[in-house]
Write a structure and sequence with these properties.
Elements (H helix, E strand, L loop, with lengths): L16 H4 L1 H28 L5 H26 L10 H26 L8 H11 L5 H34 L2 H23 L5 H26 L3 H22 L5
Helix pairs in contact: 2-3, 2-6, 2-7, 4-8, 4-9, 6-7, 6-8, 6-9, 7-8, 8-9
């Protein structure tokens, strides 16, 4: 079996887990486990409990993202003293991620347009989407487009930094590869349960919400595998962009009549 390529950023030799000391290693475990659950807890707060509260919902969303962005950065820079740099360019990574992303978006659009569009499963989804969009004052097609581009490109990059580079990267140093892939993928998928459950009736939890969330976990695991094998986060980001663009199209198609 071929060995994985060098990762985007490499830590100094004296920063390896074996040389950091038990206290730092234990503290890093605590941080990683905390960061595995923060997205789910914060999604439950701003996506569910604070729905319809306008600027308060926006503040909760931005605050949770700031926490998720700063903790990995500060932990690596100050505690682990890891090296920083731009993502390593890799055509191989982009090709693998792009191909997987195209398969993903094709499957999503096929599932929506052939099997879900116009069914009782999504009967109340447009109203639920609009309720969330109004929290962020996204009420026109152009604003929806701006949101879609932001989420698909910039937010996807943020999530790759958070889930693949930091969470999976730290787990990979401390667990067997399969366990690191599974743990990071399940953590990534967990907050999607709350999101999907918001848009799909509870009667379809076992037949739609749970399978959709498991599909997200599979996607997250594949993206982490691409990152591991190619040493570049670009492929995972490309696959993530395409998946999010597919979701944005479905969301727009569902609520286009309510956007003025």
């Amino acid at each position: 079996m071929s060995t994985p390529a060098s990762p985007d950023t490499t830590s100094p030799a004296d920063a390896s887990p074996a040389r950091r000391g038990p206290l730092i290693n234990f503290a890093t475990w605590v941080v990683v486990l905390l960061l595995l659950v923060i997205p789910t807890l914060s999604s439950w707060v701003y996506f569910d409990q604070m729905e319809g509260q306008g600027w308060r919902t926006q503040a909760a969303y931005l605050g949770s993202k700031a926490i998720q962005a700063l903790i990995p950065f500060l932990w690596v820079a100050i505690v682990l003293r890891g090296a920083w740099g731009w993502p390593r360019w890799s055509w191989k990574s982009l090709l693998q991620g792009g191909l997987f992303g195209l398969v993903t978006i094709a499957g999503m659009l096929w599932l929506y347009h052939i099997h879900l569009e116009g069914t009782a499963i999504l009967a109340d989804t447009p109203a639920q989407i609009m309720l969330k969009l109004r929290d962020f004052n996204i009420v026109t097609p152009m604003r929806f487009l701006g949101m879609a581009l932001f989420l698909s490109f910039l937010h996807a990059a943020f999530e790759e930094y958070y889930w693949r580079w930091f969470i999976f990267g730290q787990l990979r140093e401390r667990l067997p590869l399969a366990a690191a892939l599974a743990a990071s993928a399940l953590g990534f998928a967990a907050h999607h349960v709350i999101i999907v459950d918001k848009y799909v009736p509870r009667d379809y939890f076992l037949t739609v919400t749970l399978p959709a969330t498991l599909a997200v976990a599979v996607g997250g695991g594949v993206w982490a595998w691409i990152y591991h094998r190619t040493g570049s986060i670009l492929g995972a980001w490309a696959a993530h962009v395409l998946a999010d663009l597919g979701l944005m199209w479905i969301g727009f198609h569902l609520c286009r009549g309510s956007l003025s």
